[in-house]
């Protein structure tokens, strides 16, 4: 199988708060909204969905769930997001495995790790898979 896209769907009772959060802080574009299910797009093939529980479905346990956002300018995004009022739950810092990043949480408790790639430290270079992008 070779999917053309992949995206998480979070089962939540916070549909409106989720929509507002991603549109406000991440410039997500609402592409579907039937009230109990929404789809938000960040770019072609980059999306996230939220739905209210249907027919006995459980709410999503978001503890431990992280959604990674690779950006061109992590420092600029950190400045923009914190100036808009979000508080980073992980500070912006360089990591030896090859990125610089920080994290915030969405209204559902999903950790959003925002980062830019960096050259990994020598001790992590042996773990980079050849040809991986």
- Mean pLDDT level: 93
Principal-axes shape call = globular
Assign the CATH topology of the largest domain.
Signal recognition particle alu RNA binding heterodimer, srp9/1
Name the strands of the widest sheet in spatial order. 1-4-3-2
The biggest sheet, with number of strands, parallel, antiparallel or mixed sense and barrel status, is: 4 strands, mixed
Fraction of residues in helices? 10-25%
Top-tier CATH class of the largest domain: Alpha Beta
Poorly predicted runs of 5 or more residues: none
Structural class: alpha/beta
Rg estimate, integer Å: 16 Å
Q: Total number of β-strand segments?
A: 8
CATH architecture of the largest domain: 2-Layer Sandwich
- Tell me the count of domains: 2
Order of helices and strands: EHEEEEHEEE
Number of helices: 2
Q: Could you tell me how far the N terminus lies from the C terminus, measured between alpha carbons in angstroms?
A: 20 Å
User: How much of the polypeptide forms β-strand, as a percent range?
Assistant: 25-35%
Describe the protein's architecture and organization:
This protein is of the alpha/beta class. The chain folds into 2 domains: 7-54, Signal recognition particle alu RNA binding heterodimer, srp9/1 (2-Layer Sandwich); 63-126, Signal recognition particle alu RNA binding heterodimer, srp9/1. Helices cover 17% and strands 35% of the residues. The protein is built from 2 helices and 8 strands, in the order βαββββαβββ. It has a 4-stranded mixed β-sheet, covered by helices on one side. Strands 5-8-7-6 form a 4-stranded mixed β-sheet, covered by helices on one side. The longest helix has 12 residues, at 15-26. The protein is globular and about 50 Å long. The protein starts with 8 loop residues before the first strand and ends in a 16-residue tail after the last strand. The model has no long low-confidence stretch (mean pLDDT 93).
């Amino acid at each position: 199988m070779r999917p053309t896209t992949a995206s998480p769907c979070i089962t939540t009772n916070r549909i409106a708060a989720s929509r507002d959060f991603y549109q406000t802080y991440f410039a997500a574009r609402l592409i579907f909204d039937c009230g109990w299910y929404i789809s938000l797009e960040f770019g072609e093939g980059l999306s996230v969905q939220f739905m209210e529980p249907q027919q006995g479905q459980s709410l999503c346990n978001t503890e431990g769930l992280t959604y990674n956002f690779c950006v061109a300018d992590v420092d600029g995004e950190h400045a923009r997001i914190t100036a808009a009022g979000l508080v980073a739950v992980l500070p912006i810092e360089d990591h030896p495995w090859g990125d610089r990043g920080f994290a915030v949480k969405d209204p559902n408790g999903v950790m959003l790790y925002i980062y830019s790639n960096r050259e990994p430290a020598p001790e992590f270079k042996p773990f980079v898979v050849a040809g991986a992008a």
